[in-house]
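User: Can you predict the 3D structure for this chain?
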Amino acid sequence: MNTDLEKKIASGIAALQAENFKEAQGLFQEALKEAESGQDRLLVALCLDQIGETFFQQGQYIQAEPNYSRAYQIRRALLTPGHEDIVGSLNNLSAVYFFQGKYQLAKPLCEQLVAIYETILG
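Assistant: Here is the predicted structure, written as C-alpha cells:
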C-alpha cells in the first residue's frame, strides 16, 4: 500500500472515531478511488468497509448496505472461507440488514457466522 493511501485511510479512521463523519467520508472516498485504480482488490474492500461504517454509525443503513455488500463479495471471492476479514464482512452485513428490519436476509448470514465460530472454536 502506498504511503498517501495509508495516510488517507488512517486520517479517515481518526475522523470517524472523532465522529467527524463528513471528513471521514471524504477521505475514505478518495482512498477508494485511489485503491480502485490499483490492483489490490482487498484494499478496495477495506475502503468500502470504512465507507459503510461511516454510514452505519450515523444510522444511514440503506447507504451502508451496498458498501458492506460489495466488500463482502470481494473478500468472499479472494479469501479462504473463515478468514477473519470474511467474518468481519458477514458481521457488518448481517448487522446492517438487522437494523433495517431485513431479518430474512440477516438470518442466513448469522447462521454462517455461527458455523464459522463453531469450526474455529470447536
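The two ends are 35 Å apart (CA to CA). Helices lie at 3-17, 21-37, 41-57, 61-78, 84-99, 103-121.
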